[in-house]
Amino acid sequence: MRTHILVPTALLLLGACTLTACSDGAGVVESSPARAQAGPSSPGAPAVDPSKIKGLEIVSDSSEHGSCPFAVSYPKVPGARAMTAALKKDVDQRLATFRSSRCGSDSTAVGELNISHRFLAASGDVLGVRLTTLDSSGAGNPRTAKSYWYDGKDGAYHPALDLVADGSRNAFVAALKKRLKGREGVDPALLDEAFADTRDLADLLGDLSFTADGGLRVHVAPGAVGGAAAGAYVVSLTEAATTPWLSPFGKRAQKQSEHPGDGLDLGSTRTPAAVPTHTASADDDTDCKKVKCIALTFDDGPAAPESASLLHHLARYKARATFFVVGQNVATHPELVRAEARAGHEIGNHSWNHPDLTKLTSRQAASQLGRTSAAIKAATGKTPTLFRPPYGAVNTRVKAATTLSPALWDIDTEDWKYRDSAKVARKVIAKARRNSVVLMHDIHPTSVAAVPQILRTLTAKGMHFVTVSHLRATL
Ligand code: NI
Fold first, then answer.
1. What are the domain boundaries of the chain?
2. Among the listed residues 368, 374, 319, 375, the one whose alpha carbon sits nearest the alpha carbon of residue 346
3. How many A from CA of 220 to the centre of ligand 1?
4. Topology of domain 43-258, per CATH?
5. Positive or negative, the Cα torsion across 387, 8, 2, 123?
6. Cα(466) to centroid of ligand 1, in Å?
7. Strand pairing partners for 296?
8. Cα–Cα distance between 393 and 408 in angstroms, integer?
9. How far apart are the C-alpha atoms of 24 and 5, rounded to whole Å?
10. Do the beta carbons of residue 120 and residue 128 sit within 8 Å?
11. What is the spatial distance between Cα 126 and Cα 128, in angstroms, rounded to a whole number?
12. Are 85 and 59 in contact (CB under 8 A)?
């Protein structure tokens, strides 16, 4: 696992709504009014710009292989060490369990693990993050979510229930039960049982967040009060109902959600890596009919400082490459994507948070790609034309959901697996053929470190490094 800078994730997976219930694809069931929580742009959710969180890094790990499909990430905010530790513990645990059951050579298990994050609040001295997990490798509800809160004033990590004052929990729980009673799928016996033991409350009510108008959204854990298939039940409380129950920290978190300040600085001392300033014309006159061309591609970024280092390597050899970026990373590091485009590289779309698109509905797949293209356009001024499906998984439904052209590869370095620079370089150099498309990942420092040797050796062999679109256009 490594660290790179990232973004807020969103629950972008909107599903079908009825008059009484609305599922957002994250297993959330909202009673009327049907209003799914869909991300920063969804009505009611506070908008947080992760590029304004000082020193934000993202710890991420992912594979690019359908035999072991996982993509996990969580934010690491300088000054919020206790919260990072809680996030790390949860993510590491889930990833280790998934990999041991799913990714062994003799494993017959199926399913995918995707853990994405989204900022609930990040201003003043309040930080709130929701991790959404999709784990389709086991039984039970595949989608769960948990929110994590951090009080920069006290330097304390808080599970979601700490937003509610100790002395108000009974009244709060009574109100929730009242709101849940009679809802479709809620089992009255389970409802009583679920709330009976106060020691279980922190898990049961592990996902609380504020709306932009100061209300509280309570996600009751999937299966706790009804069939797991029903997903999480959401109770939305108004600001007036919520405020009397809040703890002092809860009140500050509410305020920062309702009236967010401009960014968050919890005491970062890290100096961010300088953004490279190379420029190159978008036109490339390399004639791949006459010379040997090869297209290097880098997925899952942008990441800092790796993507910046990579730009320096590429500039030194006047090499062009294609970056298949993940939307949630673009939102945190638009300046790096801008630098990649300015240096003459191609920017392609690699989805918002790296799910297997073939497992999504057409609408969800379109949302994954559409949001990412919009983020790329916002960063670079240019809409991408290519997408690389995570895990290389694409079907006619996914293709029909987008106007982007799928771009796969023919040389897989499997660099995500072994994280060894010498091996990455060796593999690329040994397998490189004229007009090949090579798959690497610039979130791994080991892959970026392999690039100078790749460029040096292949340049000496007469290879020219071009973008995927250029390769396609000139063949
Ligand atoms: Ni990928």
1. 43-258, 292-474
2. 319
3. 32
4. Heat Shock Protein 90 (3.30.565)
5. positive
6. 20
7. 321, 438
8. 9
9. 27
10. yes
11. 7
12. no
Rounded to the nearest whole angstrom, what is the distance from the C-alpha of residue 169 to the centroid of ligand 1?
43
Bridge partners, 216 (sequence order): 210, 237
Q: Which amino acid, residue 431? A: K
Q: Ion ligand 1 — residues with CB under 5 Å?
A: 64, 299-300
Q: How far is CA 283 from CA 18, 34, 291, 466, in A?
A: 50, 49, 17, 11
Where b means 16+ CB within 10 Å and e means fewer, 352-391 reads bbbbbbbbbeeebbbbbbbbbbbbbeebbeeebbbbbbbb
Beta strands 113-123 and 232-237: pairing type?
unpaired
Q: What is the DSSP letter of 273?
A: P
Cα(316) to ligand 1 centroid in Å equals 26
Per-residue pLDDT of the chain in tens (475 residues, 90 and over written 9): 444 433 333 333 322 222 223 333 333 444 322 222 233 344 578 889 999 998 888 888 999 888 899 999 999 988 999 999 999 999 999 999 999 988 876 767 789 999 999 999 999 999 999 999 999 987 677 888 999 999 999 999 999 999 999 999 999 999 999 999 988 889 999 999 999 888 889 999 999 999 999 999 999 987 888 866 667 789 999 999 999 999 999 999 999 999 998 889 988 777 777 888 898 887 899 999 999 999 999 999 999 889 999 999 999 999 999 999 999 999 889 999 999 999 999 999 999 999 999 999 999 999 999 999 999 999 999 999 999 999 999 999 999 999 999 999 999 999 998 899 999 999 999 999 999 999 999 999 999 999 999 999 999 999 999 999 999 998 7
**pTM: predicted TM-score of the whole model, two decimal places:** 0.86
Q: Which residues contact 234 (CB under 8 A, 6 or more apart)?
A: 28, 29, 30, 31, 37, 217, 218, 219, 220
- The CATH number fitting domain 292-474, selected from 3.20.20.360, 2.30.42.10, 3.40.630.30, 3.20.20.370: 3.20.20.370
Nearest CA to 129 out of 93, 83, 90, 91 is that of 83
| DSSP-assigned letters across all residues of 13-64 | ----B-SS-EE-SSSEEEPSS-----STTSTTSPP--GGGBTT-EEEEEE--
Residues 6+ apart with CB under 8 A from 6: 50, 56, 57, 58, 60, 73, 75, 117, 303, 328, 329, 332, 333
Distance of CA 2 to the CA centre of its chain: 15
Q: What is the DSSP letter of 185?
A: T
Handedness of CA 256, 262, 265, 268 (dihedral sign): positive
Cα distance between residue 82 and residue 156, in whole Å: 7
Catalytic residues: 299, 441
- What is the token pair recorded at 408? 């796969």
